[in-house]
Task: structure prediction
Amino acid sequence: MGFLTFRGGVHPPTKKDLSKSSPITSIALPERFFIPTQQHTGAPAQPLVKVKDYVYKGQKIGDAQSFVTSPIHAPTSGFVRKIGFHPHPTGKPVLTIEIESDGKDEVFPDISPISWENLSPDEIRRKIREAGIVGLGGAAFPTHVKITPPPEKKIDVVILNGAECEPYLTIDYRLMLEKPELIIEGLQILMYVLGVKKGIIAIEDNKKDAGEILKKYLKKDMEIVVLKTKYPQGSEKQLIKAILGREVPSGGLPLDVGVIVNNVGTACAIAEHFKTGLPLISRGVTVTGEGIKEPKNLNVRIGTPVFKLIEECGGFSDVPGKVIFGGPMMGVTIYSLATPIVKGTSGVLVFPRSFIKNNDTLACVRCGRCLDVCPMNLIPTVIAEYSRLRKTELAEKEGALDCMECGSCSYICPSRRPLVQWIRMAKSEIFEKRRK
Result:
């Protein structure tokens, strides 16, 4: 096994010891679930049910007539009590279907295991679409779209991302330890659908034990690649560059260099769907941070309010200062503990109030550290300054749209300048102008 990496990146404290030894456990069925119609990249789902309807576990309750979208399903059996706006991880209220559990957890009658070996690639794509499977690494891009490249794009490699480079998060690590057969089967399905002969599972060198377990189940044409532990090692473009030496062009996608990248959790969800017939109604979530009494890895039904996860972990250890969905580098702060777990929620991170510091932003000292760590070879301080001065066109010329918002520049900046936030603002304005 090689130890590969990419140029740039940072080494924040990993803090994975808080939860890495906690096996994945399920929490008790909540009384109410909140299923947002927007949980994925693309068109939001439209409700297929109305208030007072009875729904079964796994029943489709929302969909849209669009290629880039993903249906949503009932996480348990019960009654639809409300369809209205509810807190969402984005910070804006989103149309949400509220389901009151009847405690029976009764599965939709049509659901049964599916033998994928007897299906064509297009039939498998349709099954994955109907199961509502999206990328579980955080981006939540519909998987059936990702594995349907244009005919002129020849794919020859599938990479499973098991790097999990964000500090604190350990759910992918636990999945690789506890469900290696499913991850390998998911990779097998993806390789079959895309007609490729090379499958790679990428992990960081702080998870070599997971790699040793996965190796026992590898099929023909699959291999494990071990990468240096560094952030953001798990981003698609950096993985491809480190493993294959291929460079995704500016504004391009992995498929432009013949590669499809999926998260190990997504592969696991695909295999679980065919084994059980159930759509994506649950996912693994790491609940951790110095603000949680007992950090754990949990299997959680989609739509569970986050306060239920915090209760399951013994509650807050101190006065909470910040609750983040995702990791500390790219996660988003939430403002209500009624916010539900959605398909893209890989972690819930709690910092106590004593950890939160409001440092003043100082002038740029031109140290150049942000240039050294930028994995996209950008000049973050220049792009950010153009954005701050509302010179959006100049920010775009400097490559603002190539910024992956990993936050490495802001992390390393000695003047504590919010570089990635300014660049994000420029990107938002550029996209807004293009829509007009």
User: Anything to note?
Assistant: The chain is about 25% helix and 20% strand.
